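#lab-general

N.A. 3:47 PM
ok so I finally got the sequence cleaned up, no stray characters, all 375 residues accounted for. can someone with queue access submit it? mine expired

B.Y. 3:52 PM
send it over

N.A. 3:53 PM
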Amino acid sequence: MTSTKKDPVLVVFQLTGGNDYLNTVIPYSNPLYRDNRPAVGIAEERIIPIDDKIGFHPEMAPLKHVYDRGDMAIVHGIGYANSPRSHFRSMDIWHTCEPDKLGTEGWLGRATRDIDPNKENVLTTVSFGPALFRALALPGVPVAVVDDLDNYGLLPNIAGEQRNKVLDRFARMYSPAIGSGAVMDYMGQTGLDTLEGADILKEAPRIYSSDVEYPDTPIAKKLKGIAQVHMANFGTRIFYVDHGSFDSHSNQTGMHDKLWFDVSHALDAFLDDLKEHDADQEVVVLMFTEFGRRTHDNGSGTDHGAGGAAFMFGSNVKGGQYSEMPSMEEKDLEQGDVVPNYDYRGLYTTVLEDWMGLDANPLVGATYEKLPILA
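B.Y. 4:20 PM
back already:
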């Protein structure tokens, strides 16, 4: 008998800029929350309780429904020791799994190589955004980078023999670079891979239909693009997308509200779209940010912190809360921040092994504690 079960697909959703952990998953019953948040603390009547201690940001109502049906997991206190509290260095650490030195290989680039070692599919990994994320970067590993799927592809308005001639000219332009040095090899092969990927991906919107209405926002458009590519059955196993900036040093209240409104409604539509197409068993979403924010606000916003929260979504996710909310007692803080108590590489290991079926140790650099998040 032929199996109809599809390979598992991972969507990584990056909240760029350092999302405020304590105003996203709010310890509303802890008086220290009010003590530390005189300017940006969320009024209790606005908080969406999920139990008698923790509540969601008020703009996360669509995700509360996802949580209630058991398709959303919260990972408390995620991070790593000795946070540098720098956007660039922190993202490097999350992207390369190298907290103690400057890494050069993205963890998902390595995963892509393991999934497709012979580069048989240039669309094994697809990134939605204007540039390649470092988590995906690895020499010799093709990644399709899409900013706007509706207008993606080379020369979309040229058809027939003229288009073939132009594409052939592009191919001949890139080919001579192969074999003339490591950098030129990389650039030349990347150019050829891009040609092939662009030609395939442009078909995705044409063969997609859905009754789900996505919001008219940039992040919703990206998630809809991911749905379109997934439904097109191109064999993509890893998608990457980001939204932000969540860098809320000032005017945090309105800024954070808008960010979570857009994220929550877009992600809810995406998950509904997967369900409508009976594809919800095929995809899980991992959402992370590079660090949380300082425990005490600065009078208008919050500054860079350490411990944060990550989330997972999908029908194969065992919903609920994992790890523990770190202590907000002053004696337990480091530089005014809640201290991470769960290593982010443990969550990566969970996803790589329990969902993607890969050996995580060489991809994340060691063995880490997994969480029982995935069915």
